[in-house]
Amino acid sequence: MREFDYQKLADKSWDSEILGLVAQIHEYKGRQELFIRQKPVELEKLVEIAKVQSTEASNEIEGIRTSVTRLKQLCAEKTTPKNRDEYEIAGYRDVLNTIHENYEYIPINKNYILQLHRDLYKYSEKGIGGEFKRSQNHIIATDASGKSMILFALLPPYETAPAVEAICDSYNRVRDNQAVDALILISAFIHDFLCFHPFSDGNGRMSRLLTTLLLYRSGYFIGRYISLESKIAKGKGRYYDALSACQDGWSEGKDDPTTFVKYLLGTILAAYRDFEDRVDLAGGKLTSLEAVRRAVGMRIGKFTKNDILEQCPGIGRASVENALKKLVESGEIMRMGSARATCYVRADSVK
Questions:
Q1: Is the CA virtual torsion 256, 259, 264, 266 positive or negative?
Q2: What's the rounded Cα separation, in Å, for the pair 157 and 162?
């Protein structure tokens, strides 16, 4: 089994792009802490939106889905799962809530990771929750002719438990001595976790849950207010490309995680920027019309009423609908489609 020693990250010369991403995230983190103290009520509205988006997006990446109405009911625990997909969605909801509410009491070690995986599948019929993989798995790609090929040979089952223990031990040791910036350390940990896929199923979702947990335990609470999973889902191609780019030489410990580190840091930074935009709109000092007008001004391309509702959590559905109607009447935006297919574009984007 390859060795895992995150202390080596302290000796690596990171390029200016990564150092710049880290510096910007540190700056945004400081401002977020100020917002949390000043606007607790407004920010609480962002929490529920982020929970639903995270649960939906992380499962959607894996092809697990249900209707928007059912999703919201499941996240609010106002209904019970009806099928296999909904059982897995409910499991993700519960683990995410556990992390939100108890992150400081969830140490990073093998047993707790197994327990989180157990809860991810506690409603499922698969019977795999809380167990490492028992058979060899690979990352497979299929070409245009339909021929499958192994992109990456993952760790064999007998090496999985020791590998999880190794990355946790190394992570905790380096985190405690603060030899490596927490953001880079977290990115490297998630990269390794994804590279050996310790479970027979649920590795992607577990990696995203662990990202949130590790960030929380290091004082980065962005995932509480803005869904990191949603941003990953929207840029899914870049996510897989970044992971693939770092896999050469991984089994021998000769890989370079730089591309994946950049990807994850960029995702975190984008979430912090989105957070500040939403805090501004949720401040309560603007009229509904002005808040919606500002939200519209931040949009590029087509957008829906639900997009604006997410950006303006302090405004009710009826007020958003009324504001959009006024903006259409004033010629500031244009309505396209009808019924459920209704969307809008800014008038200044149309020649």
A1: positive
A2: 10
d(CA 120, CA 89): 8
Read off the pTM. Answer: 0.88
C-alpha distances (whole Å) from 55 to each of 17, 30, 60, 110, 264 are 31, 27, 8, 24, 19
**In CATH, 288-349 is 3.65.10.10:** no
Rounded distance between C-alpha atoms, residue 116 and residue 209, angstroms = 9
Residue 133, CA distances (Å) to 63, 81, 156 in order: 21, 26, 9
Q: What type of residue is 252?
A: E
What's the rounded Cα separation, in Å, for the pair 297 and 245?
A: 36
Least Cα distance to 212 among 68, 62, 101 occurs for 101
For residue 341, give the amino acid letter. Answer: A
- Look at the domain 6-131+158-281 and name its fold: Fic-like fold (1.10.3290)
Contact yes or no for 271/220 (Cβ under 8 A): no
Instruction: Give the domain ranges of the chain.
Output: 6-131+158-281, 288-349
What is the tens place of the pLDDT at every residue in 282-313?
Answer: 665 788 899 999 999 999 999 999 889 888 87
Please write the tens of the pLDDT for every residue from 228-285.
Answer: 999 999 888 899 889 888 888 888 888 899 999 999 999 999 999 999 888 877 665 7
